[in-house]
Fold each of these.
Amino acid sequence: MQKSEISKEYCAVIEKERCRRALLFDNCKELFLRHHPEVLEIGCGHGHFLSAYALAHPEQCCVGIDLKSGRLKKSVKKLKKLNTKNLFFLKAEGKEFIGALGQSIRFKRIFILFPDPWPKKRHHKRRLIQEDFLLELGDHASIGACIYFRTDFQPYFEWTSKMIEHCPNWMLDQNGRWPFEEKSYFEQIHSNYKSLIAKRI
Ligand SMILES: C[S@@+](CC[C@H](N)C(=O)[O-])C[C@H]1O[C@@H](n2cnc3c(N)ncnc32)[C@H](O)[C@@H]1O
């Protein structure tokens, strides 16, 4: 392949990425202008949990995001069957999604259920829960809002507890109650799990 062809290909990749981000930005803008979702699930997978949550809470507008198209398609299929007006799904990576939100956007409830555990030490940096991510999430959470985190992987539970303890805008809410129970796809497979609730302070 010649040098000019490589640079053409490179430009096409950059352009595709720019369009993808612009589309996410536009989708977020429209969704939040029209519907003001206050409940977020990051890594919603097949959408089992959030679909049931939205049905049980018709007064709350919910948005679920996942980075995998295949999983999201299943969520959207569920959504069409439910015919509910308070539930939306977007294909997005967690950090990118938060970065695409307008400054005034605040969530009241954020669910993170069975996030990918990345057990190997060299992969820990790929975990969704990171110090900077918690800070950014805090900027888009109302005071008193909660993160509801659940995992079947004990080391990830400990990792998240420690990060919350050290994060200036979140605190562990030891007396908090899980607001709604519905088994997510992964919860159906992993019955042994731990949950924590972090409150925005
Ligand atoms: C183990 S599955 C759990 C799915 C669902 N929460 C459940 O309990 O059945 C983790 C999901 O998170 C999604 N995911 C992983 N990293 C993500 C990220 N950074 N942003 C958004 N979604 C992510 C994956 O595509 C996958 O669907």
Amino acid sequence: MRFDKRIVLVTGAAVGIGRACAIKFAAEGAKVVALDVNGEKLEILKKEIERTNGEILTLVCDVSSEEAVNNAFKRAKEHFGNVDILINNAALWRDMSPFLESSVELWKKYLDINVLGVVYCIRAALPDMLEKEFGRIINVASVAGVYGNANMVHYSATKGALISMTSALAKEVAHKGVLVNAVSPGSVSPSDVYDLQHTQPTPLSYMGRTGSVEENANLICFLASDEASYITGQNIQIDGCRKKQ
Ligand SMILES: NC(=O)c1ccc[n+]([C@@H]2O[C@H](COP(=O)([O-])OP(=O)(O)OC[C@H]3O[C@@H](n4cnc5c(N)ncnc54)[C@H](O)[C@@H]3O)[C@@H](O)[C@H]2O)c1
């Protein structure tokens, strides 16, 4: 199987794109470490993956706490070994506030989770990847980080930061076998829908529909696989041909 012997850590794995990634990686032979603040939904995911004989360790972890992230990586290492593939997916995105109504507290919360949460996870994973001379880091950004979404300046800024962080870090570590890429979804099907293939109409893409969480996971798994061995420093949009707002 494609991810036999690989250890994959997915943040924000309880629902949506993160859940679809956890399920797909496990189905393709990976040992999956699933992090989320939502322990209840992590338990449901664990049962779902174990029912199909997949291997999963679930850890309740708030990625905006460096200490919690370091503890989670320590437990992952003790349980499975070093993380080979890191999927930075956890984020906040639902708040819609015009710029002048977006408080500094809101900005700090978004920056803490969406940017620093990714920094903490990469700092925890990278030393072992460099030593092994193998690693894949995939940051889940957004089309908002490319085009900017009105009333989501705070969110757009965090995703723009991830995209530039991706290309800058990729240059530092490419010669050591660590590949760093971003994916930028457009409109994704609601993350609380159980069916991984669910899509629904949206006026925001020329394809006229949302992308399923499975379609997003397919791209992420491809970038994490050996088939993507010459791709790094990229931001790949998965948006059904986005209508720019
Ligand atoms: N859904 C979309 O339309 C869309 C579009 C573009 C980009 N994205 C990006 O895709 C990713 C996944 O979004 P989604 O809509 O599939 O899921 P979601 O936003 O519904 O859920 C994200 C998961 O992250 C977890 N989470 C939130 N804060 C956390 C924290 N501090 N520590 C750990 N876990 C935390 C949540 O509990 C949840 O399980 C996000 O990075 C989002 O910005 C989503």
